[in-house]
From TrEMBL:
<dbReference type="GO" id="GO:1902936">
    <property type="term" value="F:phosphatidylinositol bisphosphate binding"/>
</dbReference>
<dbReference type="InterPro" id="IPR001251">
    <property type="entry name" value="CRAL-TRIO_dom"/>
</dbReference>
<dbReference type="Pfam" id="PF00650">
    <property type="entry name" value="CRAL_TRIO"/>
</dbReference>
<dbReference type="GO" id="GO:0016020">
    <property type="term" value="C:membrane"/>
</dbReference>
<dbReference type="InterPro" id="IPR036273">
    <property type="entry name" value="CRAL/TRIO_N_dom_sf"/>
</dbReference>
<feature type="domain" description="CRAL-TRIO">
    <location>
        <begin position="159"/>
        <end position="255"/>
    </location>
</feature>
<protein>
    <recommendedName>
        <fullName>CRAL-TRIO domain-containing protein</fullName>
    </recommendedName>
</protein>
<dbReference type="InterPro" id="IPR036865">
    <property type="entry name" value="CRAL-TRIO_dom_sf"/>
</dbReference>
Length: 309
């Protein structure tokens, strides 16, 4: 059993990760200055630390124009979706109930090729306990915690265990609006590299829903979405020991790992709540945005809501 939520990487591992996108200190400082110069001219965006900028730069391979776009979108979706990015107190009753309903956690160890694995499984077959916006809220809090805690990784791997997803009432939550929120946030408004998405233990009833979900991913990601009949099929891709006990590993049981992630957020409760204020303020925006993705903003200049349907 590993006692820490995530195992810190060693100096040797950090060096190997950095070598995937080599950049000298002077070059990194120059890139930070470029982004900082741009940020100083964006009064609608919150204050951002150099450490955050450096991590975004690394995640986006030091493409400064892409970094500007993602930072703009990252803070803009937080204003557009208050139902997801507001009320971030991890001690609330609503949050606690969701922890009981859905197991959601990162695996403590990185994969051998330095990817962070995020795991998901419904703890019950009761469709009434699943709230899409709460699912996204908790996922965003977990991801932001990881982005702050992890020194560097080379991307994320998602593993969805569908053992308890066996009714149409459950799959009905994965509608067009929900899927487009997921894609907008993760593909356009977050500095993340999604390397693979695994769906495991798929019931026949889920086939249509999963193909529907896959349809909305960009073409370059479709080949990264894998349907796995059992967890044994993952053993050729990852060390089995790194997985939860239920999947044949030694990381601990899923309920405990999920509770442990919740406890980490509770430890940083003030930080979580402070995240509510880290969003764009459209009242301070100067003119029309030349940076933000219009598909994020909906209609240019209208920041009250975004329409997907």
């Amino acid at each position: 059993m590993i006692n820490t939520m995530i195992v810190p990487i060693t100096d040797v591992q950090l060096k190997e990760i950095q070598n995937f996108c080599p950049r000298s200190k002077d070059e990194i400082d120059q890139d930070v200055d470029i982004v900082r110069h741009w940020l100083n001219k964006q009064p609608h965006l919150p204050k951002t630390s150099d450490e955050f900028i450096k991590k975004v730069l690394f995640s986006l391979k030091y493409r400064t124009e892409k970094v500007k776009l993602v930072i703009e979108n990252y803070y803009t979706v937080k204003e557009l979706f208050p139902q997801i990015y507001g009320d971030l107190d991890p001690t609330s009753e609503t949050f606690r109930k969701h922890v009981e309903a859905v197991h959601m956690f990162p695996l403590p160890k990185l994969t051998p090729d330095f990817h962070r694995v995020l795991c998901y499984r419904m703890a019950t077959t009761d469709a009434k306990v699943f709230c899409p916006d709460n699912q996204l809220k908790r996922n965003e809090m977990m991801w932001n915690w990881l982005f702050d805690e992890d020194e560097l990784t080379l991307g994320d791997i998602w593993v969805f265990d569908l053992t308890n997803m066996n009714s149409m009432a459950q799959w009905a939550h994965f509608n067009l609006s929900f899927m487009k929120k997921i894609l907008k946030i993760n593909m356009e408004a977050k500095p993340v590299r999604i390397k693979r998405v695994h769906f495991v233990n798929i019931a026949p009833i889920a086939e249509t829903s999963l193909n529907f979900i896959k349809h909305f991913f960009p073409q370059k990601y479709k080949n990264r979405i894998l349907f796995n009949a059992t967890f044994e099929s993952l053993q050729g891709l990852y060390p089995i020991d790194m997985f939860p006990n239920e999947w044949g590993g030694k990381a601990g049981n899923m309920a405990e790992l999920s509770r442990r992630m919740h406890k980490e957020l509770i430890k940083r409760r003030n930080w979580c709540i402070a995240m509510e204020g880290l969003k764009s303020d459209s009242s301070k925006r100067i003119g029309q945005s030349k940076t933000a993705d219009k598909s994020i903003l909906g209609v240019e200049g209208n920041f009250k809501k975004i329409c997907f349907d």
